[in-house]
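Q: I'm a student working through a structural biology exercise. My instructor gave each of us a protein and asked us to get a predicted structure, then write a short paragraph describing it. Mine is Nitrogen fixation protein NifS. I'm not confident about reading structure output yet, so if you can add a plain explanation after the tokens, that would really help. Here is the sequence I was given:
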Amino acid sequence: MTPLDLDFVRAQFPAFAEPSLQGQAFFENAGGSHACRQVIDRLGEYYRRLKVQPYYPYPASTEAGAWMDASHERLAAYLGVTAGELHFGPSTSQNSYVLAQAFRGLLRPGDEIVVTDQDHEANSGVWRRLEAEGVVVREWRVDPASGALDPAALDPLLGERTRLVVFPQCSNIVAQINPVAQITAKVRAAGALSLVDGVSYAPHGLPDLRQLGADIYLFSLYKTYGPHQGLMVLERGLLERLANQGHFFNAALPRKRLTPAGPDHAQVAAAQGIADYFDALDIHHHPGLPAGGRAQRVRSLLHQAEQPLLARLLEGLGRLRGLRILGPADAAQRAATVAVLPLGQSPAALVPALAQRGILAAAGHFYALRLLQAMGLDPQQGVLRLSFVHYNSARDIERLLTALDEVLAA
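A: Happy to help. First, here is the predicted structure for Nitrogen fixation protein NifS. I'll explain a few features afterward.
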């Protein structure tokens, strides 16, 4: 196991050298990560040098288009798919909305869609709205005590009219990692399509999508060290079955079928900076190894860096009085997003108290109202959410535990 060189990692993120952020530990990564310098540099260079309409036959335009193409190709390599399967949009919420509109042409009254009450509303509400057009929406419900989804509970929801099953790789509240490959195989056997929301999972290592077996996979680049874009991955054959959401004269252009407003050229072009960063991580930690195994090595590097910190955080939180931890107590079963419910105090009141101690966190329902309601919790009160990624340190974790102990005792 190669240990993560945290000094090298933090040198790749300008936020850690920003004077206004010194002395603070960032624990709201689930809402949006720091951007790596490779993305920032590319975005700045694009605006300085390449801010023209791309794909025309003059140098700046040709290079601008080449940068956009490279983002598709290089991120596809990290995800184990082809460049033609990637579709950029302004956010995962927007991508989900457009996708639901595109599906309307495939669905008939009486067709069924399975959604969960574990999801972020972006991956649930857009499909529930199709009930108004005669689509039957079935809900795969969490266990109210744990917030977990039981794969066996999906079985009675699948039938001959099931067309789509929508679920998260992990929740942005309970963070338990769902067995995606097992679920997608079950969905495929029932003759339906699967859509997986990977927003809360992808920051901890971009998955090999071929192994997951999802027909559609969504996540947010601004939570994976990149620009404010959502990325949607779906196979070309499925894309061609969906109704065109772009201008009618662009219907034959795959990249424009699901982007009604057209692509944000600069942000798409800068997105390859995420791949630049991952490349740099691998080269620094595994010098001399071939690029072929890079995606898996980076995946493992991030996972191995986060797991001990997550285990320590869960252990430390478990020792604090007056605090309920949502989701698994075992670090191996969850992502590094930990929601807690303080007993006797408002989660929102803890946020400024923690900020005074240099801990940047957040409170709320985080668009998972249905999950909190299913668990018997008040969405208006919400939870305190503590989320970190590989650039957080063991010292950050200890500072967080100390600060939280102090504010709970106040």
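A: Here are two points you could use in your paragraph. Residues 294-319 form the longest helix (26 residues). The chain has two domains: 6-34+294-409, 41-274. It's a good idea to check both against the output above yourself.
Q: Great, thank you!
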